[in-house]
Structures are given as C-alpha cells and as structure tokens.
User: What shape does this take?
Amino acid sequence: MAPLSLESTGDALSARDLLTAAAREAGELALAYFRPGGRTSAAVQAKAGGSPVSEADLAADAFLKRRLGEAFPEAGWLSEETADDPGRMSRRALIVVDPIDGTRAFVDGDPRWTVSAALVVGRRPIAAVVHGPALKETFTAARGAGAQLNGRPLARVSGGTKAAYDVAGPKRLLTQMGARLAAEMAVRPFVPSLAYRLCLAAAGTLDFAAAGPDAHDWDIAAADLVLEEAGGRLIETAGERLEYNQPRITRGALIAAPDALAPHLLEAFRAAAGG
Assistant: This one.
C-alpha cells in the first residue's frame, strides 16, 4: 500500500479505516481471554504503581504495534504497554494506543473496556477509533469527516444550561461543580474505560463527562477526536484543546462537553479541580 500523505480528509478517512480494522483484530485477540461476569483466563501481574496488566494487554499491544507500524512507517509510537521513546517527538506523526483501556474491568468480566487508537499529526489527532469488543460498540472519527458509532454518523452534540445534568466521572468533582452551578448532578456509576466515558459524552448519552488528574494521552487521544468531530471538546482547566506528542503525557483534571456548554461549565470546573 502507498504511504499516506496525512494531509487531506481522504487520508484521514483511510487512516481511520486502518486504525479501525487493527482495533477490531486486537479486540478479537483480547476477547479470547475475556470471561463475561468472571475472571479472565489471562495471566495478570501488577505493574509499578499497582495497576494490573494482563497477557491480553501485551498480546494486543504487540499486534497493534506491528500492524500499525506497517501501516504508518513514518509515525512514532506511544502506548500504555510500551516504554516511551522520546524520539517520537522528532516525528510529525504519532500513533497513540491503549490496547485495553479498563484492564481492571477486563480482568473482572465487566464488558466496559475498549481498544483505543489514534493517529496524531501536527499535535492533534486526525483519525481515531474507540472499540468496545464486548460491548459491540465502535466509535470512529476522521478529521473533517465527522464521528460515527457502529458506522452510523453521530449527530453533533448540543448542550445548553440545565437545572440537572446526567454525568459521569469523579463524584466529588462533579458534586462541587453542581454546587457552584446551582444544578443537580445525576452521577452515573463508575465507567471504567475513560475513553468509553468520553465517547458517551460525544454520543449525547451524557450531558458531559469528567476525569480526575493523571489520565495519560493513550487514555484520551482517540476519544478526543471523536468528541471534537461530534461537536464537543475535551479540555483541562486552561480551557484550550489538548495537544499531543509533547514531553508531558499525563493530564490534569479533564472535562468533555458540547462546544456550546463547555464555556458555561469552565469556571465551576476550574474551582472544583483546583485549577
């Protein structure tokens, strides 16, 4: 296959389709170890810091690195399960992957885990997929071409001020925001895949979603583009769209909201997040 120039909407669409095909195959690899409602058959060990990693994470990561490295040979690589190579910052393009976002859920038989992959060019994602193999839900996006769920276009999310919001994220942060906004926060039960949580905001299932500090770029890059192409934004307390392929790969508190609603939420978000 001829290399993509990564400049046009057509190339973004081709990149989206390549990412989606690879994520689906990686998802099938992981599903072989997944046991709905029960503990995974995969071997599990603890990483530094105590978070789990399974042989399914590692198998999916190795597959994605090989497949996407062949598809985008000019791109650098950033993944939760691969040591970060600072040389990636010398590349204009970057593949950002979380082979299983929500490993604890995967291990415990909860279907709310995803395979997340994005292609970043010029500091922003241009193509993305958040694939939930056990959920049978696949969110995709290409810059300038909109976002989809299971191949159907997502309507652009719209949001005005309300007396009550349907939300997901850290309960304390959201409750503090509600107090400042004089609004009720109906906080959903914990959504273990952050990428999936953000995509629920992109789909309009949630009015908005939040994340506490210390999310990594691999958790959010793909969902960021899905949200943007659906008419929303993912921001830290500074209020600007995020940039990727930077030295810093961890984030402060985040909020995902429709473009029309985000300015209304920002002051309360800053106060609640301490930003």
